[in-house]
Write a structure and sequence with these properties.
mainly alpha
């Protein structure tokens, strides 16, 4: 008879999968994700979120995203289209363990909207 698997095993696997998915991100974004995982607040995710946006941005910004004002519009200013936004949403859902509906994401228009939205989503415990 095999022993029952540990209840922490699925969490450890999920964390390992998340860490693997951000391996390609800059060191600062990976460190911020680790701080968040270690109990840091949702604001720790800003560098991670900006790195994800950098991965999916359709046209390269002359200014690093971290230096752009929060009012910068994802579609009009950065050139995001529905496909790029969908890719960001899927990546964020997997990485942060959240669910994002279409109705929610259409309200997100600027960098600040996106930061605030993700912060609120990760701050709310997932329902089982």
């Amino acid at each position: 008879m095999n022993p029952a698997p540990s209840s922490s095993a699925p969490r450890a696997t999920a964390l390992a999968d998340r860490e693997e998915s951000i391996r390609h991100l800059p060191a600062g974004a990976r460190a911020a994700f680790e701080r968040f995982q270690a109990g840091g607040g949702p604001a720790e995710l800003d560098p991670v979120l900006l790195a994800i946006l950098e991965d999916y941005i359709p046209r390269t910004s002359a200014v690093p995203l971290a230096e752009l004002p929060g009012s910068t519009r994802l579609i009009d200013d950065l050139g995001f289209d529905s496909l790029a936004i969908t890719e960001v949403v899927f990546f964020a859902e997997d990485l942060f363990g959240i669910t994002i509906s279409n109705q929610e994401i259409i309200q997100v228009r600027t960098l600040d909207d996106l930061r605030g939205f993700i912060r609120r989503k990760v701050a709310v415990p997932a329902t089982v």
